[in-house]
């Protein structure tokens, strides 16, 4: 079969190659890939790799189950699914077939296209782990409206937009978010009570003005770049302290968190129980259990229309268009949408 591998040194490059169709392990699913979602992590993981260490960085997959491992009881050949592939491991989604753990695979309801579904697995689980496992906010299964203010920095990012939808389902409020070119999209989600335009500057003051004296103690930094942590820290400190969850490391290596601000990191690999510098083994195991049920809950809320995929744009030429798409993500040119590669669009397979 065809697979695309990418590497970032000396510059972002992709190469298509022929490999054997992989076989699923006992707890894995083999998927005939229809669409693969591109992510900012693709260039981040590839940037220090030279050609000899090129990887198939496709971790967001949608398609049809082709075969399953001996322990898999939930899926069968022919099922329409989306799945989160283990990052950095072989047999990713930039290929005609991919392998994913059955625990991070979920059914796509008929109303959700493969293209829309391919943008779901990684970013939606990042949002869910950040809100519920890291920040400990109430799940949508907890009834009643909660007077629990939440700041989601980056409402037009895929992770931020999914977090906004989950926060609304959890009945949290007020929900404050920050966006720019993607403001109209964020408004269309009808989840945030206040949307701050970062292009106008003075973002911390604008957030505090929107809160009108109400403290906010929980924040998800779905941008984790361009000084977002400093703005959030100012808001939390002005609120008497709180917790920030970040998706990427703080850019400023000398940065010190104030005593009143608790910092945590989300690393979505914990969805398949992988630990990380900031995520203990115990936490990773707990996140793996959480991801198992929450992916199945995502199938349910997609089917009932309570949750919707991020808008998407299909790149041209399938696998051959991935590098250009990843480069646009790297350059910050993509606003409020997922880029998706449709495998059958790839020429000369
Ligand atoms: N740790 C993990 O496991 C993990 C998992 C997933 C993602 N991440 C990281 O999380 C970040 C978001 O990922 P993603 O896939 O959700 O990104 P994305 O959808 O590609 O993000 C694009 C959006 O970023 C927004 N943005 C850029 N600068 C901003 C700013 N200063 N303030 C507010 N919004 C800003 C833009 O909003 P406008 O269009 O409104 O300008 C744009 O729509 C990336 O850094 C990614 O690497 C980490």
UniProtKB/TrEMBL annotation:
It comes from the Eukaryota. Residues 8-340 form the Enoyl reductase (ER) domain. GO terms for molecular function: oxidoreductase activity, acting on NAD(P)H. It holds the Pfam family ADH_N. CDD domains: enoyl_reductase_like. The keyword Nucleus does not apply. Keywords: Oxidoreductase. InterPro entries: ADH-like_N, ER, GroES-like_sf, NAD(P)-bd_dom_sf, Trans-enoyl_RdTase-like. Belongs to the zinc-containing alcohol dehydrogenase family. This is Zinc binding dehydrogenase.
């Amino acid at each position: 079969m065809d697979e695309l591998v990418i590497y970032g040194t000396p510059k972002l490059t992709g190469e298509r190659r022929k490999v054997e169709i992989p076989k699923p392990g006992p707890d894995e699913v083999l998927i005939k890939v229809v669409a693969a979602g591109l992510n900012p992590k693709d260039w981040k993981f590839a940037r220090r790799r030279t050609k000899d260490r090129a990887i198939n960085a496709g971790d967001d997959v949608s398609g049809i189950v082709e075969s399953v491992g001996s322990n898999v009881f939930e899926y069968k050949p022919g099922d329409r699914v989306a799945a989160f592939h283990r990052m950095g491991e072989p047999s990713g989604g930039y290929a005609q077939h991919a392998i994913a753990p059955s625990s991070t695979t979920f059914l796509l309801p008929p109303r959700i296209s493969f293209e829309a579904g391919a943008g779901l697995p990684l970013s939606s689980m990042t949002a869910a782990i950040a809100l519920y496992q890291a920040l400990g906010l109430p799940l949508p299964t907890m009834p009643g409206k909660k007077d629990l203010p939440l700041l989601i920095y980056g409402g037009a990012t895929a992770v931020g937009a999914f977090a906004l939808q989950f926060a609304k389902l959890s009945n949290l409020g007020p929900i404050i978010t920050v966006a720019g070119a993607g403001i109209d999209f964020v408004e269309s989600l009808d989840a945030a009570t206040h949307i701050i335009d970062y292009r106008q500057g003075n973002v911390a003051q604008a957030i505090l003005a929107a809160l009108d004296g109400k403290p906010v103690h929980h924040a998800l930094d779905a941008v984790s770049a361009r000084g977002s942590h400093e703005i959030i820290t100012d808001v939390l400190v002005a609120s008497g302290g709180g917790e920030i969850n970040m998706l990427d490391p703080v850019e400023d290596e000398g940065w010190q968190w104030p005593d009143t601000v608790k910092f945590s990191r989300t690393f979505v690999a914990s969805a398949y129980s992988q630990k990380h510098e900031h995520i203990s083994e115990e936490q990773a195991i707990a996140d793996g259990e959480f991801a198992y049920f929450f992916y199945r809950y995502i199938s349910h809320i997609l089917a009932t229309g309570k949750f919707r995929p991020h808008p998407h744009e299909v790149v041209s030429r399938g696998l051959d268009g991935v590098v250009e798409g990843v480069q646009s993500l790297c350059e910050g040119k993509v606003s409020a949408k997922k880029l998706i590669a449709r495998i059958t669009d790839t020429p000369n397979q």
